[in-house]
Description:
Blueprint: E1 10-13, H1 20-34, E2 38-43, H2 49-62, E3 66-72, H3 75-84, E4 89-93, E5 102-109, H4 117-129, E6 143-145, H5 149-158, H6 163-169, E7 172-176, H7 186-192, E8 196-199, H8 221-230, E9 234-238, E10 245-248, E11 254-255, H9 257-268, E12 276-280, H10 285-293, E13 297-301, H11 305-315, E14 319-322, E15 326-328, H12 338-352, H13 356-360, E16 368-374, H14 380-395, E17 398-402, E18 407-411, E19 414-420, E20 426-432, H15 436-455
Parallel strand pairs: 2-3, 2-4, 3-6, 7-8, 7-9, 12-13, 12-14
Antiparallel strand pairs: 1-5, 4-5, 9-10, 10-11, 14-15, 16-20, 17-18, 18-19, 19-20
Amino acid sequence: MTKLFGTTGVRKIYGTxxxxxxxxxxGKSLGTYLKEGTVLIARDARTTGLMIADALSAGLxxxxxxxxxxxxxxxxxxxLMTRELGYDAGLMVTASHNPPEYTGVxxxxxxxxxxxxxxxxxxxxxxHSEQYQVATWKKLGNESSNGTLVASHIERLLERCDVxxxxxxxxxxxxxxxxxxxxxxxxxxxxxxxxxxxxxNGQLDGHFPGRKSEPEKESLTxxxxxxxxTGADLGIAHDGDSxxxxxxxxxxxxxxxxxxxxxxxxxxxxxxxxxxIVTTVDSSQVLDETVKKAGGETIRTPVGDIQxxxxxxxxxxxxxxxxxxxxxxxxxxxxxxxxxxxxKILEIMAKTDKSFGSLxxxxxxxxxxxxxxxxxxxxxxxxxxKLSDVLPKAMGDVVEVxxxxxxxxxxxxxWVLVRPSGTEPIIRITCEAPEEEITQNILxxxxxxxxxxxxxx
Length: 457
């Protein structure tokens, strides 16, 4: 049975791996699983979005399940409003940070959390069996729309930060939604916080003409230049569906997600009863050290926001996130929440009367480098099985080997994580060490081993 779900939802190249028929069947599968109720459907700006959303809706309606259409909104908005408005599930048509030729669907439960692997497996079984619930013409689902979801989200965000304190500072903020779904929320949220807002790549466009959808230092040159030229206080950049966010200081420094998690975690640990912070296996050890110094403990999970959310729920953690720019605040909801992260950073800046750049200097930086090696999806299990034997033996000075997600090899100085991508036909390699030269050497050695292994398959 072909596996549909990756790290988060179903995400594939349109036309060769994903088409309207697949979307229709996914809608039927979810409707059959639910049996009844109402599902919220929304999308990001991708060119395939409306078509795929229509097919999903048709599939659900054919099973007798009702549909509410939310239009183009961020993924966190869909997840939050699925819970807040009492819907039985939420579907977001997106391929997240992937290039524009990709499309897909993220599935959200009534609790605002992504679906567990058990539920995903049941949906896959229904999908492949094609044994769908079929409603009679009298009992087909009804479709309606809701155009107030973003406004409702902003309203709830403003309730969770010191709005007056932030407004008193009149910050200048540069927002780069990357032509994605954040175009409809972040600039307006910043305006509500009394900020002077300048946007770049602020028009919805599924071709992502301004930059790559994934917000990284290399793709944020326009944002950095604007900050430097305008004297802005903060830069905010999102990916295609806005579940990720990267922050940039007043000097144009792009801050890694795990450093920002560490920064926010030490603030949360001052006031929360829980002293647990959850992150993924690819986050910097700086996060562990910062949390420990603040009196907390760090728990690591496999990559994926659903994995972080499950562990946050099960451990009653204070907060959590991923190095890629995912932040989850359980007192709000269990989906990624980049907008509250932005509010919290501005609030801390306002209360301390310090710039983000000066505040983040308290969180050290360890050189971290990443690379990737092509690997067909069907070869990933065999490749990882072989690497689990070859890599630790070849690296030397191995202290510990972890297999929480992929293969983590911890050395006397540094570590390397090798894991198959859940969304692309590649194997990802992440390395970190106290010094740049050591990091480069670890990456060079690990990548060479992975490439040599792939040649033997």
